[in-house]
Structure formats: C-alpha cells, structure tokens
Amino acid sequence: xxxxxxxxxxxxxxxxxxxxxxxxxxxxxxxxxxxxxxxxxxxxxxxxxxxxxxxxxxxxxxxxxxxxxxxxxxxxxxxxxxxxxx
Length: 86
Prior knowledge:
This protein is an alpha+beta fold. The chain has helices at residues 2-23, 28-35, 39-47, 64-73, and strands at 25-27, 53-56, 59-63.
C-alpha cells in the first residue's frame, strides 16, 4: 500500500511539472493576444529572430519568459534579437 502511494505521488508530481512547463509556453496567437499585437507581427518577430519558438506537434510555442522580456523591451520600433541558448 505504501509503495502504491509513493508511485501515485511521483506520478502526480510528474504531471504537475509537465503542466507547469506547458503553462510557461504560449501559442503564437496567445502570445499576440498577451502583447496586444497582431498574430502576423508575432510571426514576423519569430522570422526575424526576436522571439524563439519551440515546436510541439503542429503548434509553435513561445516561452513565457521570452514574451515577458520582449514586452519589457517593447517600445516603438523593433524588439531586440535574442541570443540563442544551448
């Protein structure tokens, strides 16, 4: 019984970690809505390297941290390009 509870706790913790990861990424449409810009603007920023994306199936996801950084730097003109992380 104790072993089962430990296994359930671990599974629940894994599910919560995965959910937290998914919440930290937004679709390009959600990103546009959050910043108050059009979806094509977000696509342009991605194409020009201002925002990084991660493929998840058919979706392109933008990291919430990158979006916050972009919003903080946002002013008339172009946002700064991000440096690739590896």
